[in-house]
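Standup notes
- DV: blocked on the single-chain target, sequence here:
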Amino acid sequence: MDELEIHTTEMHAGGEPVRIIERGFPAIEGATLLDKRRFVREHHDDLRTALMFEPRGHDDMYGALLVEPDHPDADLAVLFMHNEGYSTMCGHATLALGRYAIERRLVEAVSPETHLVLQCPCGPVDVYVDVDEAGKVSGTRFHSVDAFAAALDLEIEVPGYGTIVCDIGYGGAFYAFARASAFGLEVRGSPVAELVAAAAALTDTLRTHPAIGGTSDPDLHFLYGSILTDGLPGMPSAASANICVFADAQVDRSPTGSGVTARIALATARGEVEPGEVRHFRSVIGTEMTGTVVAIQDHGDTTTVTVEVGGKAHFTGRSIFTWERNDPLAKGFRVR
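- DV (later): unblocked, structure below
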């Protein structure tokens, strides 16, 4: 590859970064969004590492690549990227892209609420942006793809930690869930390094569990990460804290939108939450998102839920990144 110039807009939602790639990325082939995801992974993965890793990014950077949608109802389509590869769903980036679409005039703003459809690798997601008459965005919500409880109350042996009781939930991506206390830890009190080690061990143990499946496309059938919780239900007066460790030990600074979706699906399966109840979730840095069941679907052997996840996103800047042919570190590097 010769010299290259890539333009981005920088945002965060709940503290988790979103690097939105706007211009300069090479042409992407593929009839469907999952085809495009495979093409980028096979032909342009060096640009993912260049934009996510140092010296342009860091080991916990997150990216969103805008591409042409193939879904007939979609206004926008996106590929998500991180330190390991390409995720199937990302709630915090979806919240950010909702505001981005309004303020960059990619969709027409309608007050008091603008609806748009974002095509994600896991499927189309309805996004609702609160907009005042002056065009100012005050918040964003999205309605998830069908979410479900894949497994409840699994007892597994996690090397170094003993028997752990955990769940597996799907919220556009598969996550394992366990109480931090099962590892002798606290979400908001223990060193992050210890929480990461525990969550990573849980992920490694469950990576090939047969419960990870049940969606229409095998490309979605992998365990994205593990979420350790404080075990609380997330009532308005006391938000439930959790920490999500995904990809290659990457720590989500936000409460994790797709994780909130999966948590609500698990709570629904247990009869712990009713449609319309708003639950509050807090990240390891104290930022919050909300989750609400807006629909329940019976598919015979499987019950799925549609979850509304709410939060706020903020702009942090714009960047122009260059690639010089004689730079031995052009593809990026990791130190950790």
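- Follow-up: The CA atoms of residues 156 and 164 lie 5 Å apart.
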